[in-house]
Amino acid sequence: MEMDIRQLVVEVFGVEPLKIEYMSFGPTNKVFSVELPDDQVIIRTNTTLK
Questions:
Q1: Strand partners, 45
Q2: How confident is residue 1, by pLDDT bands cut at 50, 70 and 90?
Q3: Are 25 and 2 in contact (CB under 8 A)?
Q4: DSSP secondary-structure letter at 49?
Q5: What is the mean pLDDT of the segment spanning 20-37?
Q6: Residue 42 has pLDDT above 80, yes or no
Q7: H/E/C letters for each residue in 10-28?
Q8: DSSP letter at 8?
Q9: Which residues have C-beta within 8 Å of that of residue 50, sequence separation ≥ 6?
Q10: Greater pLDDT, 26 or 46
């Protein structure tokens, strides 16, 4: 199941992201640069269950 990054940001940070930019990917993860109203964060998601 594909994760909705916008939804994840709202759930974790409690604010709507201003911009989400897909940065790169690997065999098991995706990386996003996320601009928030007062900050900028990098989010790395892993698609492999442990």
A1: 30
A2: very low
A3: no
A4: -
A5: 88
A6: yes
A7: HHHHCCCCCEEEEEEECCC
A8: H
A9: none
A10: 46
Question: In angstroms, rounded to a whole number, what is the distance separating the alpha carbons of residues 26 and 29?
Answer: 5
Cβ atoms of residues 32 and 20 within 8 Å = yes
Residue with tokens 């989010």: 43
Look at residues 29, 14, 2 and name the one whose alpha carbon lies nearest to residue 43. Answer: 29
Residue 49 has pLDDT above 70, yes or no: no
| Among 32, 24, 27, residue whose Cα is nearest residue 12 | 32
pLDDT of residue 36: 97
Write the CB contacts of 4 (distance below 8 Å, at least 6 apart in sequence): none
Q: Can you tell me the distance from the alpha carbon of 30 to that of 23, in angstroms, rounded to the nearest whole number?
A: 8
The backbone region for 31, taken as left when phi is positive above 0, alpha when psi lies in -120 to 50, beta otherwise, is: beta
